Amino acid sequence: MSEPQAAISVRDVTRNYLRSRTSLFRAAPSVHALHRVSFDVQPGERFGIVGESGCGKSTLLRILAGLDQPTSGAVLIDGTDISRLAERKLRFLRARLQLVFQDPMSSLDPRMRVRDIIAEPLVAQGVGGRKERVTELLSAVGLQPDAADRFPHQFSGGQRQRISIARALAPRPGILVADEPVSALDVSVRAQVLNLITDLVQDLSLTLVFVSHDLSVVRHVCDRVAVMRDGQIVETGPIQEVYENPQHPYTRKLVSAVPNLRRALAGTSAADLAAASAGFTRGEHV
Amino acid sequence: MSSPDDVVVQPNSDRRRGPRLNPSLVVGGVIVMCVVLMALVSFAWTPYDPTRVDATQRLLGSSAKHWFGTDKFGRDVLSQILMGSRTTLFVGLVAVGVAAVIGVPLGILAAMTTRRLGELLMRGNDLLLAFPALLLAIMFGAVYNASTLTAMIAIGIASVPNFARVIRSGALQVMGTEYVLAARSAGRRPFAIGVRHVLPNVSSLIIVQTSVSFAIAVLAEAALSFLGLGTPPPTPSWGRMLLESQEMLYSAPRLAIFPGLAIAVAVLGFNLLGDGLRDRFDPKLEDRR
Amino acid sequence: MTAVIDPVTSPDAEHAVLTVRGLGVTVRDVALVRDVDLTIGPGERVGLIGESGSGKSMTALGIMGLLPEDVTATGSVRLTGVEHDLIGADERALSRVRGRDVAMVFQEPMTALNPTMRVGDQVAEAMLIHRTEPNRRAAQASAVDRLDRVGLPDPIQAARAYPHQLSGGQQQRVVVAIALANDPALLVCDEPTTALDVTVQALVLDLIVRGVTARNSAMLFITHDLAVVATVCQRVLVMYGGRVVEAGRVDQVFTRPRHRYTQGLIGASDLEVVDSRGRLATIAGSVPAAGSFPVGCVFRNRCNHSTELCKIPPDWTGPDSANGFACHHPAGLSNV
Asked: Which of B128, B152, C183, C190 could cross-link with C222 by S-S, CB 3.0 to 4.6 Å?
């Protein structure tokens, strides 16, 4: 039986945090950041995760990247369970899976030059030929070679995201995990960076996990999507299906509550969006 | 391929006034150099021997022979000021050096380690805080014979808790950033992260804390010297001069003014230098348009 | 703006709530905003669209007199019910106007609210400052009512809460309540829902629209999100490089844009349209730093249609400041 092995396999992952005690007599309250999350990502697939703030996607990404350990469950990257491995056994993961972060302002060390930022994964993994690789990467993300000598603050948000992407690609990973990479960017810059991501994923045959709160962005980038809410996955499926025919009420709300240019021009008003949104308080009174 | 971005944008909000040679750096640097110069010169020459007592020359006012006058023992004040600058520099360097060398790694370690260990370290830090410089100076003085050096080490150790606490707070912030997360996911070892990311990003905190600690150290030395736990007479010390002048504050205020001014100006100089250095090395201010 | 036609041509210029003429904002001799004209009538909802570096936030701050220390505004800003020009007015005069005749809703509710003060007291304070309520007790009672009207459940309890005890959406509702407390003639919103979750965003937007409609207030809504403007506003102005490059009714500007930047922006924001290789339409290059915009048409270094002619600043083509564009080679009516 030779099934193609999933690039990423998340099985029944739960992550609880203990908050500080508020009472001497009762145990500390625990926060369920993730509850029995399961999904698979095939090699070369573009997998989206959609959810609003507090849904647990950041926690999930850290666990995927081996920066946090689940309370229970397993995470298999290329067939190896990384969920309980010690740091020194995770070396392979560092070369195999890389992250791109959301905030272009705080994801680059302000005191490091761009060439050192991009070369850092290579330094950490003891790979040589860094100078050439940095030049190569800058070109791949559409930046001039002289950017290497500059500091992050000299670049715009979109350019910083390109630097972030260059850094992530330095160790030639097979899996790219992007956490809201375009959420902080202007519309026209977003289009450029999304194009860059889709080009690179295609040219380098990468597996992509793309997290966003914006379903329409995920729809553009991904093949399949999982919708998260309160630490759980409520719906999974091919992106077109989920978008056009959402099964779960929360997904339906996500799809219809987002302001959409076409629909607005067709007459959807703020009141209509609000009506679509009402009834789902996520524990919050709105 | 996406459209190349060849325009380097400098966001407005990040542009602060900070040329390579900013006023703080220049003025602070000049003052500090003067103090260093005074100390160096004093090794070669002073107008008079500052330790020579001459009862016939007691409490003279400023004159051509004695620019700053003489003190109650007939010693030339100017010479004492010159030689006293050595003590001041020695004090500053050793006390702040000890505090930084112990406090900075302690703070960074406490921030980078597990929560429990970090808390433990901070509680140990607090214990140290409970020992005032005075007590430490007495302890060292009793064991090793009170001298400038014992006083400075005592003050240095007493300054460690503040360093550690401030640096830890800054280091915790750095540890929470996404770029540290990126470094971890790139496979960087903790030590490398501490040196390559945390240390540079808390450097401005270190510089500022150094300036503050220096000022405190100088004043602490003065108090200790007065109590006989610091620079023993007859070696000149600005602090001791200041405190010895107390009894003649009304009759000869210049005996307080000169050393007092010297301390104030030196402390100001170091503070300005600290500010200037901090701005000088902040990459955001590196190019001035 | 070198308009060919008499600038005061908005149909109800006499009854306009906000009239801005030739607004300019400069910082240390770099122009951030230039020649902005806009008029808003009562009950009108006007959007101001722009990306980072377009000058839209500076325009809003300039109108409200909230510019930082070394930033100066020139031109004229007239508000209904206020005798003097807002530009150049001193802080005392402006503080009487703010909160009463014009109110603002910013992006971050947590920084707009005082963290050490209960929210009910903050709403009450807004009313007491401008004497909308005669005394403390009346103001507090009124505050509870306002909090109820913005949809906070259990308003009496909510009034006693501190900002950090509320969620982001609830905090923003409080900010809206404070802004509308004195029935301002003009409400200025700067990215009020950008920091909120999608589902909460819809509710807060609806709240704002209902709030201004009920009071027949004018609204200036600043954002980079085209869809939000299309949902909430009737008219829109597009800003780039510190200038208004196009203006008109929302449905017209977004379906038949004339200025090439507007055209590019709409194209780039459309995630459903891709070329044969699956790529989105983009605008070439990136936004220059303030002060580095090209001479002439501010957009010409990124425009596929620019020619030598574009080195001359384009005139405004249109009947008034609310309708028109400034482009030498505009997109045709068939949107080519």
From this structure: C190
Task: List the domain range (segments joined by +) for residue C301.
Answer: 1-101+185-328
- For residue C194, the distance in angstroms to the closest alpha carbon of chain A comes to 10
Mutate to test the interface with A, among B1, B114, B179, B286 (most CBs of A within 10 A): B179
| C216, C184 Cβ separation under 8 angstroms | no
From the candidates A162, A186, A258, which should be mutated to test the interface with C, based on the most C CB atoms within 10 A? A186
Measure the CA–CA gap between B139 and B148, rounded to whole angstroms. 14
Residue of B2, B182, B283 lying closest to A101 (CB–CB): B182
Least CB–CB distance from A65: residue in B185, B188, B287: B185
Q: What is the CATH number of the domain that holds A85?
A: 3.40.50.300
Range of the domain at A115: 8-237
- pLDDT tier, C123 (very low <50, low <70, confident <90, very high otherwise): very high
Q: Which CATH fold topology does B28-41+75-284 show?
A: MetI-like fold (1.10.3720)
Tell me, yes or no, if C224 comes closer than 8 A to chain A by beta carbon. yes
| A2 lies in some domain | no
Q: How far apart are CA A244 and CA A192, in angstroms?
A: 26
Determine phi and psi for A216, rounding to 5 degrees.
-70, -30
Phi, psi of A78 (to 5 degrees): 50, 35
Q: For chain C, how many structural domains are there in total?
A: 2
pLDDT of residue A270: 85
* CB-nearest partner of A52 from C151, C197, C225: C197
Residues in chain B: 289
Residue A175's Cα: distance from chain center in Å?
11
- The residue in chain A having the minimum alpha-carbon distance to the alpha carbon of residue C167 is A284
Is the minimum CB–CB distance between C228 and chain A shorter than 8 Å?
A: yes
Q: Model confidence over C193-251: pLDDT tens digits?
A: 988 888 889 899 999 999 999 999 999 999 999 999 999 999 999 999 999 999 999 99
